[in-house]
Amino acid sequence: MKKQTRVIIGLLLSVISLCFSILIITDTIPTSPKKPKYIFYFIGDGMGLNHILGTEQYNAEKSGKGGIELLNFSKFPIRNFVTNHSASTLVADSAAAGTALATGCKTTNTYIGIDSENRELRSLTDVASDEGYMVGLVTNVGINHATPSSFYGHTSDRFAFPKLIDDYINSDVAFIAGATLIDAKRVKSATNTKIISTAELAERVRNAGIHLTSNAEEAGNIVGNRVALVEYDKKNKTLPYVLDRKGGEPSLIDYTKAAINYLSNNTKDGFFLMVEGGKLDYASHEQDAVATFLEVNEFAATIDLALAFAKQHPKETLIVVTSDHETGGMSLGYDNYEVRMNMLMGQKASSIELTRIVQDMRAEGKRNWNEYKQVLNDYLGLWSLVPVSKEEEALLRRDFYDIFLKYGPMVSGLYNNSEVLVYDAVRILNRAASIEWTSMLHTGLYTPIFAIGIGEREFIDCRDQTDIPKVIADLMGGEL
Hints:
CATH topology of the largest domain: Alkaline Phosphatase, subunit A
CATH class of the largest domain: Alpha Beta
Shape: globular
Largest sheet: 9 strands, mixed
Helix content: 40-55%
Distance between the termini: 67 Å
CATH architecture of the largest domain: 3-Layer(aba) Sandwich
Strand order of the largest sheet: 2-15-8-1-7-3-4-6-5
Radius of gyration: 26 Å
């Protein structure tokens, strides 16, 4: 009897052990994530790791807390970094990098939506459309600029702006928002010999039956029609910097709200929305730290909109945040093992706005150095908040006398030009904060990736930026 009992107990223990083993094995097998119904894809153009950290330090200083004040996406459960070189060089331009993030394929610099052999690539827009998602694209620069164009365009010449508008018209993008329709006058383009104005491009869009408007609220409430929300009748090719914005001017936040409203009103099957913080890149090309930090903050504010949406749809939403490349080679800690963000608290205008102010003064015939010194004090805090050495003031005076009064050459920040006087003044300010820049162009530094929501863990193994869209496409149920 005792022997039978021991046998029964032994069999029970074996069964329990087997069941426990099965549970362990089952628990370790990766399960396929539920398909997200709503996908937000945020791209901070030019946003490197130090752009994020610098913004967090700037915000903490401004709030009086000191240290670091984490941005919303810095708190996401998935936080990593990826490589971002192009097929032609270790430093990618926005066309090649945008194409990589849209198609999962590396290509040659200046190429959009095609590989290095000129073969058209399938983008996330195509996958989303095939899988039943409605597509929206938002930016605060031109809708036919490199990053948004990478989601619908196909050309070896990123400056073929009219051609890219035609590609947009023929795409499956339901909603698009940006500062303007960039015309062919902006740069010399190998594929465009004829100058086509912004007004003519706008007419092409209207003739295609797309509702063209500059009113964000109107755009968000339209039902049953494709929408292009652009400031097409303005001279500016981008929206104003956050630092320079005046009341009533549109913002990336306004455009993102409109996109979410439109997509929510026009589909029950889910949507894919890409939002680009393009002005972030511009500010970094100009080596303007404060303008850059405020653009990062607005970029984060658009992510707040997605997070609020996700609270309403917690089991259906995925949010991915990344960058196409780093711009400027920003370093935090130029000297003395410290960063002094308090030195930046007096800046009230971007280098571009300050250039405009200085040029207006010159046009008015003002020629007194003390007047310009006062402007640098008023808008940058030099002298009153920021110590200026004798050598630094001598440099600014030389800029004034030797260059400024002679209408000398400007300092090119790629997209905008600064007066040399303004460029040197902003650089002095940045150095006072112990911030330095190594380039006025892009660098090959790592770029970040953050993810939260349905399928977030699938991004853990991303090592290059081309992995990101491949994961998104797979989560949609399609393939690039």
